[in-house]
Amino acid sequence: MDVKDAKISVKDIRKSFAPGKASLPVVDGVSLSVADGEFVAIVGPSGCGKSTLIKIIAGFERADSGSISIDGAQRNGPSPKGIVISQHGSVFPWLTVQQNLMFGLNGNGHGDKAALADHYTDMVGLKGFEKSYPHELSGGMLKRVELARALVVKPEILYMDEPFSALDALMNLRMRTELMRILSEERHTVLLITHDVEEALFMADRILVLSPRPATIQATFEVPFAHPRKLSSPAMQQMKEQILGELGVS
Length: 250
Description:
Blueprint: E1 8-17, E2 24-34, E3 39-43, H1 50-58, E4 65-70, E5 73-74, E6 82-86, H2 97-103, H3 113-123, H4 139-152, E7 157-161, H5 169-185, E8 189-194, H6 197-203, E9 206-210, E10 217-222, H7 234-247
Parallel strand pairs: 3-8, 3-9, 6-7, 7-8
Antiparallel strand pairs: 1-2, 1-4, 4-5, 9-10
Helix pairs in contact: 2-3, 2-4, 3-4, 4-5
């Protein structure tokens, strides 16, 4: 991909922390590009620096060196073009589902905010729960609310940091399927951080494998299979084994 055509361009990002007297390198010269509308997953071993990397790319952590641009413009902080969905809950417990979705609709350019909120509530499969409070919902339903809250502001980029990791295996699979259905209806550029190789294979157009800390990009895999994907297919299983091999666990 020509870097000038990239939606997200990351050049030689480096980051170290200093928990004691010694410096601890966490990200060591990562460069990557993500095309407009592309779904890129980043996988790596626990503690390798995945979350630090996506915080830097999203603008919530400052790199020691390197640069990041969005649509060719240098990014020096969080951009209104992108929104983060993390493994940590972000739903306000004192607001209803509808009110949670309306919370981010600032300004007057959204039309009927309640109707827009209800549209996205319906899109994530929560029609009828618009007036419910978070304590009345299951964990999987809360994750759907978080997804709807992110989508309602119509971000161009979704930064997803292990968003479904706290869910049980069945609900995790349902949420992956739900996200892919939504992405087939709405265009978003997605950067996903995950430790789950199958999750990456199920959704991504391209998978980047990080090395142990300090993180570098160790390998890249194009995922050419059409959606919906069957993880049990021989080709998918072969790619899974290749990725696990890069992670040293096959």
